[in-house]
Amino acid sequence: MNQEQGTRPSPDLKIIETRVYRGPNIWSYDPAIHLVVDLGSLEDFPSNTIDGFTENLLAHLPRLDQHHCSRGKKGGFLERLDEGTWLGHIAEHVSLQLQQEAGHDMRRGKTRQVKGVPGRYNIIYSYADEAVGLAAGELAVRFVNHLVQPEPDFDFTTELERFIKQAERTAFGPSTQAIVEEAMSRDIPWIRLNKHSLVQLGQGVHAKRIRATMTSETGSIAVDVASDKDLTTRLLASAGLPVPRSDSVRTVDDAVSVANRIGYPVVCKPLDGNHGRGVCLNLQSADEVREAFPIAADQSRRGWVIVENFVTGKDYRCLIINGRMEAIAERVPAHVVGDGQHTVAELVEITNADPRRGVGHEKILTRITVNAAAVELVRSQGFEMDDVPPADTMVKLTLTGNMSTGGISIDRTFEAHPENVEIAEEAARMIGLDIAGIDFICPDIAQPVRETGGAICEVNAAPGFRMHTHPTIGDPQYIAKPVVDMLFPPGTPSRIPIVAVTGTNGKTTTSRMISHVFKGMGHKVGMTSTDGVVIDERLVIRADASGPKSARMVLQNPRVDLAVFEVARGGILREGLGYERNDVAVVLNIQPDHLGLRGIDTLEQLADVKAVLVEAVPRTGFAVLNADDPLVRRMRRRCSGQVVWFSVAEAGSEVREYIESHCRRGGRAVVLDRSDLGDMIVVKHGRRSMQLAWTHLLPSTFGGRAMMNVQNAMAAAAAAFAAGAPLHDIRQGLRTFSTSYYLSPGRLNEIQVDGRTVIVDYCHNAPAMRMLGDFVDKLGDNLAQSSDIGRASRIGVIATAGDRRDDDMRELGEIAAQHFDVVIVREDVRLRGRKAGESADLITEGVRTAMENGARCRQIETVLDELTAVRHALARSNPGDLVVLCVDQHQTVLTELESVSHLAQAGARSGDEGGDPDFVKPDEPKSEGEPPTPS
């Protein structure tokens, strides 16, 4: 239905959901904003059916005619508008153009319809500043609705100005922006650490920080010295450098006394001021000193004021970086030039209308502020603000040449006399600053200062760069280059190796294995997992840390020289990756878990999410892929680097033959060679085959019975090999890694409790239960063989998260029933949208179905509370039995098991028959600093 059929469009476009991707994601390699929008009735009204829509759109944003869109040429978007495109797509282009209006050159975007939902679209577009990108999307939607049906209270010009001002407030200053852009050009990663100008360049041990032009190398003593102008002058004078005569005072009478002693004219300025605030120049008498003193004292944090003789000449700023002069600018005070037609006030307005001028440091020039001091200065030159100065007459509005007070700059870098350059460099060395702004007052910087009578009047820490990067007159100087050269000399690394691990099951254990290997090599490893953030084997944050925020925390840690990240599906969908790229990506498997959440309904969609890690591998990196999983195998096409396969397939199988072909072409792989002696993990590189370890000799595999950990060990070995670890270090790491609580808490931990073998694991989905069941069968048979009575009952406590699908819960129960004699169903504390008992009922339903079909299970019970379920399982077991606890709060459970074990031992020593768990008093949980000690 459209206008021809008598229906008018309504402004129904609205944002349903907003996401901010801060790294590679399912839509883009770069950070992006994701808006889910609903068109409502506008689904029936493409752009060519709305009268005047395109004309009004281009009237307000004419530069949209430069957008390529899918046509790949300028004007391509206009063609789409004329042909008729939907308003969600238009909102994407408006969002990009709004950012360009604010100075952010963003061009990447896409709009895709949500499958199966008419009128709903995914809008994805790039951003430079998160707040600006979000504001652009919100304004774009309002603007498009306004074009459909004008909103009386909406004025686009006003809203655009407000948006640009917001962008200017959150943007980096010119100095910070110049350094960040230089770092980006060298592929140095950066992280903004606050809403202002504190930025980290590099990662981990290689990280450096900047705040505007202050760096990690800037000494605090040097900054303090530069802030004390009296001390600065005395230090420079002691080195024989030209400085004005001066003294520091606390009272106006002392100021007059000093002025009389050194002779007029003089300057009054705050001892520790900056940006020229409170500086009063060319004071000719005691009365002027008395008037100037409170102005200077008001800007002094410590109340001290400097009185020095007034040095005449031009104002030059010499920028010294790492001991070398890199740029010189002549600073001209804020002024206007008469034209014989306009008043001084009008000339100020005309000057401030220059689009290069803004408030403070938000633009390359600062607007001129007319205050009482400016009016008085104009009056001293023979004019009032309403007077019309003659043509070509310069009227000063400030005496200082600071850019922050409205001055302009002229580049003089290549005009300075070598002697003046040497003086400026020596001054920076005397103060001890790595980046210093040396202020010269002299008639001409091209003539030696010592001959012309000039002097150094100030040394500045954290000098502004914009007078050099964006001079009003002259060529810009690329001074960010020597700053980055100082922080990262050529050949110095800025990145730490990143190994990222994803998959449905086994992520945490594999991440721990990789970390253990590199820890044994002497690395300070930062690891994230579902258990928390670990820095150099110390748990520093206890939480689910498998998302992007935790990854950024590790990259900010100055001790870390290698990172291992467990990357979960939820974090990728929510925010993307927390970093730009990973050197090694490991994909273990794709299994039916978390389906039906956040629009991921099929295994293929889940594989697309996990493949983001593979797409984030650079050309020099590696993707470690499970060749036995078809969905993982397909990811090889998305890898820009090399693929390293791992597989437990039999020799001669189709998969194994494919791997052999891959290796003959120079590729790498980790495979399992089976023989009568056992299973050997073999590393292949090209035509070389290198034996790594027998699986039954790896503690984590329980003598080769835990096949899931055999696969995890192979993936870890492949990742470590790809990251450059020598074979003997990989072997040693895997041989010393066990599933003890200290190395692998909550993952296949074994503990002996009063004659019972208890396994604590995190198993929470059907594929994991299938692998765990295989292990339970092997371990249970082994226990039965060693038992005096020739059998061992198997008791399992199981559960799953409440946000899983009903069928997935039933399947978990069916599989568990195949391997346990008794199944006890519990629930997590977090029900995730389910009613209490609902998840347990579904699992129980699956168990009963399997029992009806002849499964091993002979009894099923429901105990919802986790700790109560654990106690119940122990109570109904006997010595020699196998008890498997699939838990959520593993620390609490291990504490309980240790308590039961210790009480049982104490009872045995006192002559009791053994502590019956039914009568064990619930112990108080230990503090987080006192983890349980498993047997």
Automatic annotation (TrEMBL):
Coiled coil: none annotated. Residues 233-488 form the ATP-grasp domain. Keywords: ATP-binding, Ligase, Nucleotide-binding. It is an enzyme of class 6 (ligase). Residues 904-935 are annotated as: Disordered. Pfam families: CPSase_L_D2, Cyanophycin_syn, Mur_ligase_C, Mur_ligase_M. The keyword 4Fe-4S does not apply. Residues 918-929 have a biased composition (Basic and acidic residues). It comes from the Bacteria. InterPro entries: ATP-grasp, CPAse_ATP-bd, Cya_phycin_syn, Cyanophycin_syn_N, Mur-like_cat_sf, Mur_ligase_C, Mur_ligase_C_dom_sf, Mur_ligase_cen. This is Cyanophycin synthetase. It comes from Kribbella deserti.
